[in-house]
Design a protein that fits this description.
The protein has 391 residues and is of the alpha/beta class. The radius of gyration is 21 Å and the shape is globular. Bound molecules: pyridoxal-5'-phosphate. The site of pyridoxal-5'-phosphate (PLP) has 14 residues, from helix 5.
Length: 391
């Protein structure tokens, strides 16, 4: 039979990340000693009080449908978070809780973009953004950046890319995959361009709490009423509370957009998991003691990995200021990223994600959400691999 595959589904690029990941897992299953730098998630466990809150909700029978956009208690806790930490005043009706930050992003793009529209995405980008734009029928417009500018787009670059068809500018700081963090002045300047041109901003702030070296994160929504009105913030519990498997994310948007997303979600997924939402309340209102401990640990790993990477011939790496990724430039090795990662895995049993997955073929992504011992071992192997190429 000739199975129908829709034009939308057929235009999606399959995930390179997953290809490397499944190869690494296959090797591990065969008992091979693979070191993985591919993880896009914290290696810490979810804090106990959050698990307890969800378990208690489950035990108490909190197992039914909730309002599609999330329980009022959680939407209020999210509105309180934005007020307390960001000085932003949202009504609970402007908050939508979804099945992960990724789902929030998809909801935003689907609710605001369609055929004929353009979505401006700085590269290196989180690999799902362009695919989501395509799923909405829109065209991704990619803005190239490099390590020379810490992977940041300039206001001039953004301005030049805006056309009458531009619907959305996607901002992700701290960034996955580069770990780059825009300064408040840089964020404001990009926001100014969008306000002037009437372009909506989707600001993915999921790594807000993961920064180093005193880097300051300021939401683009916080500079003026106009910036606020032009911004949709996407956020979630996955990274700062290590809740990737819970599938819980949220967004804050101008009221008409939040309403449209509520309708969209009510006909697609309905509410996110009821007892996971109770865990989300505990995450926002409970102790944040875990965070400084995690950050201290990430900071140690980041420094160790950064030093080792820069000691490799043909490899240079700018130090990241946020998230848990480094994005070394491997162009000096003479290999492009997919071949580099395939051979690194084959020869030295080290898994990393090729930059081409993020629209940057001269780089690879190293996640340091893994132990110091793994970092030492894996990067020693990578050092040997790179020296072998030279010799
Ligand atoms: C991890 C991540 C998300 C959201 O992940 P979920 O698991 O869906 O909450 C969103 N954006 C970026 C850039 C991420 O790295």
């Amino acid at each position: 039979m000739n199975y129908p595959i829709s034009r939308r589904a057929a235009t999606l690029s399959p995930s390179l990340t997953l290809a490397i990941d499944s190869k690494a897992k296959e090797m591990k299953a065969k008992g091979e000693d693979v070191v993985g730098f591919g993880a896009g998630e914290p290696d810490f466990d979810t804090p106990q009080h959050i698990k307890d809150a969800a378990a208690a909700a489950l035990a108490a029978g909190f197992t039914k449908y909730t309002p599609s956009s999330g329980i009022p208690e959680l939407r209020q806790a999210i509105a309180d978070k934005f007020q307390r930490e960001n000085g932003l005043t949202y009504k609970p009706s402007q908050i939508v809780v979804s099945n992960g930050g990724k789902h929030s992003c998809y909801n935003v793009i689907l609710a605001t973009c369609q055929e004929g529209d353009e979505v401006i995405i700085p590269a290196p980008y989180w690999l799902s953004y362009p695919e989501m734009a395509k799923l909405a029928g829109a065209t991704p417009v990619i803005l190239e950046t490099s390590d020379k500018t810490e992977f940041k787009v300039t206001p001039g670059q953004l301005r030049a890319a805006i056309t009458p068809r531009t619907r959305l500018f996607i901002l992700n700081s701290p960034s996955n995959p580069t770990g780059s963090v825009y300064t408040p002045d840089e964020i404001k300047a990009l926001g100014d361009v969008c306000v002037e041109k009437g372009v909506l901003i989707m600001s993915d702030e999921i790594y807000e709490h993961l920064t180093y070296d005193g880097a300051v994160v300021k939401s683009v929504a916080s500079f003026s009423k106009a910036h606020f009105d032009h911004t949709i913030i996407v956020h979630g519990f996955a990274k700062a509370w290590s809740m990737t498997g819970w599938r819980l994310g949220f967004l804050a948007a101008p009221e008409p957009i939040a309403k449209a997303i509520d309708a969209l979600q009510s006909h697609s997924t309905s509410n996110p998991c009821s007892f996971a939402q109770k865990g989300g309340v505990a995450a926002l209102t409970g102790s944040q003691e875990h965070l400084p401990k995690w950050l201290a640990e990430y900071a140690k790993r980041r420094t160790a990995a950064w030093q080792k990477l820069n000691a490799m011939p043909g490899v240079t790496c700018v130090n990241s200021k946020g998230a848990f990724y480094l994005f070394p430039n491997i162009s000096g090795t003479g290999l492009k990223s997919a071949e580099f990662c395939a051979r690194l895995l084959e020869q030295e049993k080290v898994a990393a994600v090729p930059g081409i997955a993020f629209g940057a073929d001269d780089y690879i992504r190293i996640s340091y959400a893994t132990s110091l011992a793994n970092i030492e071992k894996g990067l020693d192997r990578m050092d040997r691999f790179v020296r072998g190429l030279k010799g």
